[in-house]
Structures are given as structure tokens and as C-alpha cells.
Amino acid sequence: MLENFDFGVFIIYVLVLLAIALWISRENNSHEKNTEDYFLASKSLPWWAIGASLIASNISAEQIIGMSGSGYAIGLAIASYEWMAAITLILVGKDLLPIFIKNEIYTMPQYLEKRFDKRVKLTLAVFWLAVYLFVNLTAVLWLGGLAIQTVAGVDWMYGMIFLAVFSVAYSLYGGLKAVAYTDIIQVVLLVFGGLLLSYLALDAVADGEGMIAGFKVLSTQLPTHFDMILSPENEHYLSLPGISVLVGGLWVMNISYWGFNQYIIQRALAAKSVGEAQKGIVFAAYLKLLMPLIVVLPGIAAVILYPTLNTPDQAYPTMMSLMPVGIKGLVFAALVGAIVSSLASMTNSISTIFTMDIYRLIKPTESQNHYVTVGRVVTVFSLIVALITAQPLLGEFDQAFQYIQEFTGVFTPGIVVIFLMGMFWNKANSLGALASALGSAVISFLLRAFWPELPFMDRIGLVFLLCLVLCVIVSLLTQSTSKDSAACADTKSVCFNTSFGFNIGSIGVAAILTVLYAVWW
């Protein structure tokens, strides 16, 4: 539980963050905020803000609490989501991002309209709105409310309401710019607090003999928790099926999340230039390599320190009791900051997609200020809906991170096929894209019903391959429109050259990953 001094530290942090956000959001009297200012931060973000904001948007409640809970239940193998994401970021920066920036888009559905047609755009826009609202946003609110209840003793519902109000207070006026720049503060506190908690956890496991001794105790007493590649006999094999985390469905999930996920890629779309965005992505990749040390290791240590937790997702909040007074308040502030950062990122992306892809289609001649106002209204409305639906949707799940992966995994393979084929195969057309979207859902449900023993990640990989074949067949059997061909031809003019610094940074990420998997295989 937090002491009075911890609450004082937390309140100061909240007030400082609000003040900074409002200062960043200020505008000259002569300038009225337009859609590019509000949704893409005036396309002026530097690399360090992009990298920090990418991580802050990703490392939210479901990442910190959910992955720590999976570390408690499964072990270090769950870190594959983090470490493989690092190399995925490099590929996104080199091969996907230049295409998006050249097309000067606000949203992912907007690219699909340019490449295919409005049917594909609207299909994916509606899908993403539903997923962000009823899966991602609700999960962040629910887990955030539980964390506040565990650490501060405040009822989870009041905690959720506070998170929603805090998120609106610092992001509603300034939009993406306010979110991205305040994310820098969030990431610094997250990394500092996470590393400190890991140190204290290892020291506690070793009865005060230090971090290295604590790590030896963990690896000795919990050897199966340090298996990166799980064997078929492992009870968690269905969640992380062996070698598939390296060569199977995890690639599909990571490419979808880091390459085609609006609330992630929107930060890179707001960059000053392609080169600036790529530097930010390399920075984010190195931060991802640190994440298992920050979020998974405390969960593993909790198996020894708190072996009788009611649910795995209580691991991280419970471990915060190891923190000294004052520092606990600061780390709690960092946790809350990460939660509200993700809430702000998701609601900003929800408002961007709804306003730019749906509302503007209905009312195309309204003023820029009108669209910004609509975006703000949608932000508030989405949080109200998430508050109402969070507990009914997530109350029965022990591991929220797995809940998110399971529900989004139904459509992920089809989405990846649509984008990759649209970008790199000039014969792909809108009917092939729609067939992939529909086929992904149908095939996923059929496999889940009639082949339940097939591991989730393997199912993702298999559905991806089947959707790939489906897209090729349907595209070849139907006549491609001239718009499809022209849009793909424009992709061929994209420059994929990268800077020397980007290349060196990419080699470093690959080398570190090679060492990590060689040691913990």
C-alpha cells in the first residue's frame, strides 16, 4: 500500500505532467489547430520523441501487468514477444514506413483506399475501431484499475474513472503532439522504475545478497521459467509453441502490430522525414530489448516471493511493495503514466480513424476546426464506452495479455496479407483483399472449433498462408481495376535506402538477439 508521502509524490507528478502537456499544446492566437496539427503533431516529431512515444504507447497496462503475469505463469519464454518485436521494428522502418510516408496518409485505412478502394478502407476502419475500443482500450482501463486497487487501495472502478479523466485532461486539447512529448517523461520513469524494481526483486529473492545471487536463485529454483523455446510437454506450449516463436505466427502478429497498427505507426507518420522516423524506430528497438528485464523478470521473481497470488496479473502490483517510501510513489506514477499514455494514444487513434476515414466520408466539406472538434468528442465517447464495458469483457480472464492476442489474432493474418500483397504484388486487387479479410475470420473460427489442440501461434501462421493463397487466387480470377495497378506502380518509386546509422543500429539489434537466444535457448 502507498504511504502519504507516496501519494504526495504521485500528485506532484500528475500536476507536472498536466502542466507540461498544456504548455506543449499551446498555439499562437493567429493559428487555428487543423487536422494535421491534432492528429499528426504537425508532422514535426524528432526521432527521440518518436522512439519514446512508440514504447510508451506499447508499454501500457496490458504490457506491464499482463506480461509480468505471463512471466509469473509461463516464464521468460513470453519475452519472445518483446525481443522479436525489436527485429520487427527494424524491418518496418526499412521496408514499410517509407511507403506510408510517401503516400502522405493519416491512417492505415487511408492507405488501403489509395491502393484498393473504399470498400477495403471501410472494412478495415470498422474492424480497427471495434478492436481498439472493445479489446485494447478496455484492457488498458481494466488492468489499470486493478493496479491502482492493488497498490493504492482504491476501488478498481474509481481507479478506471481517474485514468480516463487524467487521459482526457492532458491529451484532449493538444492531440498527438501533447501525447508524444509527454511520453518522453513516461519512458524515462518507466525504465528507471522497472530496472529498480527488478534489482530489488532479485535482491529480495537472494535475501539481501545482491542482484547476481538473486538471479542464480531464480535460475536454480525455477529452471523451467527460463526456457525460451518451450517443448510440447510444457503446459504452456499452446500459448508459445516452441520454434514457432522464431519462424512462425509470431512474425505475423508482430508485423501487424508494429507495421499496420494505427496507434503505433501514427507516431512515425508524424515524423519530420523518413530518416527521422527510421532513427526513432531504431531507438525504440533498443528499448524493446530492455523490456523483459523490466516487465517479465519481476513476474518470475514473484513466483518465489509471492507464490499464492490469486491471479498472475497481480504479480507486478504486488511486487511494488518492495519499493521504499517515496520511490514507490514515483514508480506508481510511472505505471499510471504508462497507462494514461496508452489510453491517450488509443483514443487519439480511434478519433483519427473515425474522423478521417468515416465522418469525413459522410461530411467532406466541413472546416478543419470542425473535424478537430469531432475528434475530441469521439475521444471522450470512446473512453465512456470502454469504462462501461471493461469489467464485463475482461473480468473472467486471468491473463489479459493472452486475451488481447487471442481476440486480435482472428483477423491479424488477413490484415497482414492485405497490406503486404498490396505493397509488393501489383496484381493484388480489392476483391482479393476483401477475400483475405473475410477468410481470416472464417478460417480462424473453423480451426479453433475443429482443431482446438493446434497452438494459437501456429494457427496464426497457418491462417496467414491460407489467406495468402486465397488473395492470389481471387485476385487472378477477378479483373484488377486501373486504380489498383496505378497505386501499386506508385509504390515502386519509393526509396528504400537507409542511412549508415540505421544500418549499424540494425546490425546491433540482430547481434544482441542472437546472443540472447543462444544463451537462453
Summarize the structure.
The protein is mostly helical and 521 residues long. The protein is 76% helix and 0% strand.
Describe the structure.
Helix content is 76%, strand content 0%. The protein is built from 23 helices and no strands. The radius of gyration is 22 Å and the shape is globular.
| Content of β-strand | under 5%
Q: What is the N-to-C order of secondary-structure elements (H for helix, E for strand)?
A: HHHHHHHHHHHHHHHHHHHHHHH
- Uncertain segments are none
Any idea what the shape is?
Answer: globular
Per DSSP E runs of 2 or more residues, the count of β-strands stands at: 0
Supply the helix-strand structural class: mainly alpha
Radius of gyration: 22 Å
Write the layout of secondary structure elements.
Blueprint: H1 4-25, H2 35-40, H3 47-58, H4 61-73, H5 80-102, H6 108-115, H7 118-152, H8 156-171, H9 176-205, H10 211-221, H11 244-247, H12 249-260, H13 262-269, H14 274-305, H15 315-319, H16 327-362, H17 368-394, H18 400-408, H19 412-424, H20 430-450, H21 456-477, H22 482-491, H23 500-520
Helix pairs in contact: 1-8, 1-9, 1-16, 3-9, 3-13, 3-14, 4-7, 4-14, 4-18, 5-12, 5-14, 5-23, 6-7, 7-8, 7-16, 7-17, 7-18, 7-20, 8-16, 8-17, 9-10, 9-14, 9-16, 12-19, 12-21, 13-16, 14-23, 16-17, 19-20, 19-21, 20-21
Key words describing this protein structure:
mainly alpha, 521 residues, globular, 23 helices
